Amino acid sequence: MNTAHASITLPAATDGTLALINHESILDRCWQTIELHPDRLGIAAQLIDEEYRRSHFLGDAAALDRLLTLSETLLQNCSESGEAYVLAAQIASLVHKFDQATQYLVRAKELGAPAHSLLRQQLSIDHAIGHNWKDVFATRLRLSVQNPSLQNLVALGALYAEMGLYQEAEQSYLRAITEDREHSPFSLAWACFQLGVLFGETLEPAQPATAQYWYEQALSYMPLYTHARVHLAELHLDAGRLGTALDLLLPIQNNEDPEVSWRLAQLYEQKGEAHEASQHLARTLRNFEHVLSRHELAFADHAVAFYLEEGDNPEKPLQLAMLNLDNRATLRAFELSHEAAQACGQQTLAQSLADRALTQWGHLPAFAHSNVNSARKPSLSSAQGATLTSASQHPTLSFSTT
Fold first, then answer.
1. Which site among 21, 73, 347, 350 is 20 to 30 Å from 89 CA-CA?
2. d(CA 402, CA 356)
3. Cα gap 59→115, rounded to integer Å
4. CA nearest 327: which of 299, 355, 306, 364?
5. Cα distances (angstroms) measured from residue 121 to each of 102, 291, 327
């Protein structure tokens, strides 16, 4: 078990409940201002941040609808503003419409948008779609040195984690937390959540006790953090701690995030309460169908796991997985598509996906533990356990130019 967290003191932050109240007040004021002054780009930028918070922290999918409405308003009223197109690109990225986001950035550059705004958004797009990671990594590393803000360090940590450089990912996340000076419960909860994902889902084998610690710290900063509650509840479900899992899920049981009702369905199934389980499972299906009908690209990857496990049509998760892969050819997207192809018995497609993944991502340390790696997985000594992989263990690490 990793014990790095035992040696650090977590910084204080504004009370999370109070921060949410302030967030809702700011959100209302921003929308009122935009309705009266749709050309106020500074307010629009703040709106994007606040609506993203609703989506990420509170599981509010309707926030994405409002953001797309904001994008239309900006482009209608500020059609000759490069900065407006940068904001539209940011919104398109949030709903995973990366081709559209790229087109908006091209137009933003033509209209003279600031170089730093273009760079920030291009980095986000390239990172998300698995494009040009060599330059993305170099730039993120440089930015984190020039300005070691929580946002820069978490973004760098996320890239390290996807590459399979887990020690560096942990160190970057820890620096983001310990060196933070803004004391925002949103930002600190986000960084703690990323550490939970690192230890609970990214590492192979996982370290659930360490993941639990970090999810709990995320909730100490932001008690209604929906994703953190769901992930933590899943750990407790896996360990058979049904009462603890239920305590985490009940405060958010009315949330329309499909993952909430899915975990409740699994919980009641484990408790042997078939009627409750079937009701929550039916609600999960409705919620997934609803969000997919409105934001298919944004929820395709999340839906694949559900339909693979609970659905009766193996073609549906494969269709969604391939859609996601076409949109963002990351190693994770290849893994989902490979799993879905195998579930459908399409071994030729599965092998083709494995070959493509090897060509594009075989140079990454993360590929060694990937389900698309046809080579024998390296074993870990009993002394190492789930030792975090570091760059020093991979001196020949290089990047594909695709």
1. 21
2. 12
3. 32
4. 299
5. 9, 25, 17
- CA dist., res. 157 & res. 154, Å (int): 5
**359, 128 Cβ separation under 8 angstroms:** no
Q: Which CATH number is 11-129's, of 3.40.50.1820, 3.10.20.30, 1.25.40.10, 1.10.1610.10?
A: 1.25.40.10
Please report, as a single letter, which amino acid is at residue 253: Q
Architecture of the structural domain at 136-237: Alpha Horseshoe (1.25)
Tracing tokens 């970090």 back to the chain, one arrives at 214
Q: pLDDT (tens digit, 9 = 90+) per residue, 193-250?
A: 999 999 999 998 999 999 999 999 999 999 999 999 999 999 999 999 999 999 999 9
